[in-house]
């Protein structure tokens, strides 16, 4: 019994997989922003009731969380102290001297305060060079005085980030020893352990961010583990990393910066599995929830891994799935601009509380979900009848804003959806058109509570088909957590011309990192048969500012063979990514080893029965607003459809965890995997 838990801005999604009977159970419960663990505990209780099991039967809990992300975005993290090399106290303020535009951007930019203030920063007398040689010995007496002054001032966590500590971290380790001797309860992070790579700002800000969210994450994980114990769940808790891997709760408490994109990672992982199972190797992941929409690209069945991301204004140099997020979701509020009196949607959201007007939780402002209710796209009851919607309240709220701009409720609601779709379309264009990819070469996997409501309209705008609606779209991210594997990355900076570095130095570096990877897998109790280790080199052309990760075949590492094959791959990869290769020397930047621990796959459960007679699958016929007019629209029970069944649009397909809108001039088919595939009617003629 494995349980995936995804906490969103509006709903907490749960998916329970019974591996013995190959049965999947799903549940959605309102999120509790004041304490997310309350909603998780309520969801665990609900899904156990649905499955008819005791909480003690659950063997593993996999959890995606936005706690770290929200702490940074909302500026509600801990007070962090920072120790740097003397003379580099302004590292976080100088950053990369970047502004969001030329002169005008510089004029209007409101630069945020760093996550560690200058008042909480101390310069330590010491210095290493880029090769790890001691240039200036650590002045321990002065360092101790500075540490006492800083730690007695009330900081909640401490970051130690010294120049070139990636090459030699002896001084960082000594400073930590001094802190632990004098302030044993203070949480301390070393940049040489969190990010042992060159580029001092990236290393410093990533480590400071780790400490900024660390006390909050520690408290949250303590609460959720306590709630699970109260519900008699005795299994281990694992947290999803930003790169789609898994880590123990203890590891997440120690290095929470690796969870900054934990939430969206599950959906991308699940989309990659769908690509492999269906043979649709080019897919766009479209995850629309209550607060935001996350999009990503899957090529050749694999998601794109980025070596850095941004949380608000701040970069975090940690491995992440390449996800683009926008503030458009089912709870996004529709309002009039104060300057232009024009209609806009989001990024302000009604969230879980008070939520959309239709949810009857006290919301008064019209949202995207309310617009869907007005147009007849959302039925009056959701979650299998457990949730009654206030249809009249939603209509009144949308009518009120429509009256201000001279539109009736239907056209005002359509305007809200059109604007929300354009916001989400912008994110999809960024990950396709702006990267030289033609969206018409891709299909789209629609998931999240609101994804299937909007996916057909977005596909029609972009021309990307088929739209794939998985069997459990509303809880697909939770399913992705069950598909995830344990993962951790180990890095060693090694800069120099590839032709001038002794190959034996590279093989020795890989061996050292592999030993660390094995030790980590031992800590995570990964079974021997489930272990995997991959190798890669970060390479670039001489004088370039950024590098490309190139895989190194294991047999080369094991046999200490030459690297010509890897360099050839670099030239080809550079040309594929940027359209050009250069006749320049190659420079080595870093060695990477990724350790993985496989988990059992979630076996597919395609429809075993059902009907091809669509009329027998109709729940009711209601009114739907399509192409500017009301149309009698069948509401179809998805669970009654057999594999191979075909539905002509317009139609509303209903299931427990989401609702799918099928537009006119489109049709859907149920494939052998249980997915709904939506195509333009012209394609199937």
TrEMBL record:
The Hydantoinase/oxoprolinase N-terminal domain, residue ranges: 2-182
Any GO BP: glutathione metabolic process
Domain Hydantoinase A/oxoprolinase: from-to ranges: 203-489
GO cellular component: cytosol
Record-annotated membrane-spanning stretches: none
InterPro entries from the UniProt entry: ACX-like_C, ATPase_NBD, Hydant_A_N, Hydantoinase_A, Oxoprolinase-like
GO MF, any single term: 5-oxoprolinase (ATP-hydrolyzing) activity
Signal sequence region: none
Origin superkingdom: Bacteria
Domain Acetophenone carboxylase-like C-terminal: 505-673
One protein family per Pfam: Hydantoinase_A
Protein's recorded name: Hydantoinase/oxoprolinase family protein
Upper taxonomic lineage: Bacteria, Pseudomonadati, Pseudomonadota, Alphaproteobacteria, Hyphomicrobiales
């Amino acid at each position: 019994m494995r349980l995936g838990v995804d906490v969103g801005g509006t709903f907490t999604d749960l998916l329970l997989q019974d591996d013995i009977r190959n049965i999947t159970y799903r549940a959605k419960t309102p999120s509790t922003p004041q304490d997310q663990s309350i909603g998780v505990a309520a969801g665990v209780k609900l899904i156990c009731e649905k499955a008819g099991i005791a909480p003690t039967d659950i063997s593993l809990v996999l959890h995606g969380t936005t706690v770290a992300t929200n702490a940074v975005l909302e500026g509600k993290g801990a007070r962090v102290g920072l120790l740097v090399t003397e003379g580099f106290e302004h590292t976080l303020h100088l950053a990369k001297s970047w502004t969001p535009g030329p002169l005008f951007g510089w004029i209007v930019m409101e630069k945020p305060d760093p996550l560690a203030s200058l008042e909480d920063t101390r310069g330590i007398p010491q210095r290493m060079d880029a090769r790890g040689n001691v240039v200036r010995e650590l002045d321990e007496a002065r360092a101790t005085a500075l540490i006492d002054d800083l730690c007695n001032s009330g900081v909640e966590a401490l970051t130690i980030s010294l120049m070139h500590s990636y090459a030699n971290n002896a001084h960082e380790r000594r400073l930590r020893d001094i802190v632990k001797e004098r302030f044993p309860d203070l949480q301390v992070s070393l940049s040489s352990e969190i990010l042992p790579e060159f580029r001092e700002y990236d290393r410093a800000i990533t480590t400071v961010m780790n400490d900024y969210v660390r006390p909050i994450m520690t408290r949250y994980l303590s609460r959720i583990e306590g709630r699970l114990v109260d519900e008699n769940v005795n299994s281990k808790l694992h947290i999803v990393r930003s790169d789609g891997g898994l880590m123990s709760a203890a590891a997440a408490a120690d290095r929470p910066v690796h969870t900054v994109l934990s939430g969206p990672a599950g959906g991308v992982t699940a989309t990659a599995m769908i690509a492999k199972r269906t043979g649709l190797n080019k897919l766009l992941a479209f995850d629309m929830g209550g607060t935001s929409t996350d999009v990503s690209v899957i090529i050749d069945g694999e998601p794109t891994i980025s070596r850095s991301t941004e949380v608000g204004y701040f970069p975090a140099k940690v491995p992440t799935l390449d996800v683009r997020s926008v503030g458009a979701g089912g709870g996004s509020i529709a309002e009039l601009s104060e300057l232009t009196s024009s209609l806009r949607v989001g990024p302000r959201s009604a969230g879980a509380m008070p939520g959309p007007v239709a949810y009857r939780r006290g919301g008064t402002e019209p949202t995207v979900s309310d617009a869907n209710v007005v147009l007849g796209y959302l039925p009056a009851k959701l979650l299998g009848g457990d949730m009654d919607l206030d249809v009249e309240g939603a209509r009144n709220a949308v009518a009120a804003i429509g009256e201000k701009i001279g539109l009736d409720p239907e056209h005002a609601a359509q305007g809200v959806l059109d604007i929300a779709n354009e916001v989400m379309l912008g994110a999809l264009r960024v990950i396709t058109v702006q990267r030289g990819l033609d969206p018409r070469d891709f299909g789209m996997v629609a998931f999240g509570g609101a994804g299937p409501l909007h996916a057909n309209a977005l596909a029609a705008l972009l021309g990307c088909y088929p739209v794939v609606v998985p069997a459990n779209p509303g809880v697909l991210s939770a399913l992705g957590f069950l598909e995830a594997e344990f993962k951790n990355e180990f890095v060693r900076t090694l800069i120099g011309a590839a032709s001038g570095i002794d190959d034996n130095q590279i093989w020795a570096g890989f061996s050292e990192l592999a030993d660390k990877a094995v030790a980590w897998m031992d800590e995570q109790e990964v079974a021997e048969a489930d272990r995997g280790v991959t190798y890669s080199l970060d390479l670039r052309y001489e004088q370039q500012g950024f590098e490309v990760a190139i895989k190194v075949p294991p047999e080369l590492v094991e046999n200490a063979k030459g690297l010509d094959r890897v360099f050839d791959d670099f030239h080809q990869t550079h040309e594929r990514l940027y359209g050009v290769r250069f006749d320049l020397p190659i420079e080595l930047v870093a060695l990477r080893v990724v350790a993985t621990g496989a988990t059992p796959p979630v076996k597919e459960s395609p429809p075993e029965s059902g009907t091809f007679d669509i009329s027998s699958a109709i729940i009711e016929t209601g009114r739907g607003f399509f192409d500017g007019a009301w149309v009698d629209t069948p509401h179809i029970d998805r669970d009654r459809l057999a594999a191979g069944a075909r539905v002509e649009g317009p139609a509303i397909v209903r299931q427990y965890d989401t609702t799918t809108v099928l537009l006119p001039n489109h049709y859907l088919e149920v494939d052998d995997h249980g997915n709904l595939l939506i195509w333009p009617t012209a394609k199937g003629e």
